[in-house]
Design a protein that fits this description.
Helix content is 37%, strand content 19%. With 386 residues, the chain is α/β, with parallel strands linked by helices. The chain folds into two domains: 127 residues, Alpha-Beta Complex (Aspartate Aminotransferase, domain 1); 242 residues, Aspartate Aminotransferase, domain 2, CATH 3.40.640. It has a four-stranded mixed beta sheet. It has a four-stranded parallel beta sheet with strand order 6-5-7-10, sandwiched between helices. A four-stranded antiparallel beta sheet has the order 13-14-17-16, with helices on one face. A hairpin with a 5-residue loop joins strand 8 and strand 9.
Length: 386
């Protein structure tokens, strides 16, 4: 089906920050599978975990205990201040779980009408119906109405608009700590702290969607940690499995016990193969020394993009982001630039019409950052003369 548009390159292998197509041409990958391959392509620890677990046990039902599932849940909760975890297969699946959890908590803990979910302009939470109903993008929503009712949109990073639109039927507030599809827009510290205070005072679940920006992407285990807040529920996915599909729903305290037996489930979620792979990936990413290198690489990438923006003032507006999740905001439409960049051996992604989203693997080297700069300059130079 043509839902991914025209695709003229066939990738056949990858290693680290590079991929090769069927003609054996190499590309520098600064999309990382949209923040999935945080350890780069085919990291040895990830490959080893897949091989070893596949030879032992691939799948059972969730009616039995599974060692990799238990170990992964313990690691994630211990390092994020959460209490319990439930595993799914994707970001939108665990986001659906977060929505369901919040509504059960509000309705059964308070009143039947406490079911509304506050979300934000610029948001993207997924393409299943609940997640899509929480998504702001008209492009994503077009043609799919009617949507799931009960979602209230407030302006991102505007606490006054939150207060203006809040009522007693709000059961949760859900936001991406850094909006990805919305153009790499970080929530401010003041905004996150303000939301946390209001959720605590007004009895609402505070949800930080870390599907794209979590798992070390910003130089901390989760992006919300930069603001010093503690969400009640955290959906994670993408980089969790090091390239293998898995999602996680983390919850703390009373919110961790909302889903009683039979209330929510999934056939493949938390299978041994996915959990063993995620465990290997997470052990590396959550290492403090590793995260420190990610933070410093993020500073280098930001400085590099700032310099490039200054070199192309007619094309570039500004740079925003945290760690190795950066956005180069352009004054021109960015949607055709990734195709042009591939001609220069660079894989980039455009989002929100005018933003080049830059997501290198967390293992990127200084030399690869410099190479990226050269390739991006060549691409923008062609756009300028084009």
């Amino acid at each position: 089906m043509p839902n991914y548009g025209s695709r003229d390159v066939c990738m056949v292998r990858g290693e680290g920050a590079r991929v090769w197509d069927a003609d054996d041409r190499a590309y520098l990958d600064f999309v990382s599978g949209i923040a999935v391959n945080n350890l780069g392509h085919c990291h040895p620890a990830v490959v080893k975990a897949i091989q070893e677990q596949a030879a032992k046990l691939i799948h059972t039902s969730n009616g039995v205990l599974l060692e990799p599932q238990i170990e992964l849940a313990e690691l994630l909760c211990r390092e994020t201040g959460m209490t319990k975890a439930m595993f799914g297969n994707s970001g939108c699946e665990v986001t659906e779980g977060a929505i369901k959890l919040s509504r059960v908590w509000g309705r059964e803990g308070f009143k039947e009408s406490k079911h509304k979910i506050m979300v934000f302009t610029g948001s993207f939470h997924g393409r299943t119906y609940g997640a899509m109903s929480a998504t702001y993008s008209p492009k994503v929503r077009k043609g799919f109405d009617p949507f799931v009712p009960g979602f209230v949109f407030a302006e991102f990073n505007n606490i006054a608009d939150v207060d203006a639109k809040w009522d007693d039927d709000i059961c949760c507030v859900m936001l991406e700590t850094i909006q990805g599809e919305g153009g790499v827009r970080p929530a401010t510290t003041e905004f996150l702290k303000g939301l946390q205070v209001r959720c605590r005072e007004r009895k609402a679940v505070f949800i930080c969607d870390e599907v794209q920006c979590g798992m070390g992407r910003t130089g901390k285990r989760m992006a919300y940690m930069h603001a010093g807040v503690q969400p009640d529920v955290v959906p994670i996915a993408k980089a969790l499995g090091g390239g293998f599909p898995i999602g996680g729903l983390l919850a703390r305290g009373e919110f961790a016990d909302v889903f009683t037996k039979g209330r929510h489930g999934t056939t493949f979620g938390g299978n041994p193969l996915a959990c063993a792979t995620a465990l290997a990936s997470t052990k590396i990413i959550f290492d403090d020394r590793f995260l420190e290198t990610v933070w410093h690489k993020g500073l280098k990438l930001n400085s590099l993009l700032q310099a490039i923006a200054a070199e192309f003032p007619d094309l570039c507006d500004h740079v925003r982001g945290i760690g190795l999740m950066q956005g180069l905001v352009l004054k021109v439409n960015a949607l055709d630039i990734p195709t042009l960049a591939r001609k220069h051996g660079l894989i980039l992604n455009a989002t929100a019409e005018t933003v080049l989203r830059v997501l290198p693997p967390l293992t990127v080297t200084d030399g690869e950052l410099e190479e990226f700069g050269s390739k991006l300059r060549a691409t923008l130079g062609e756009v300028k003369t084009g």
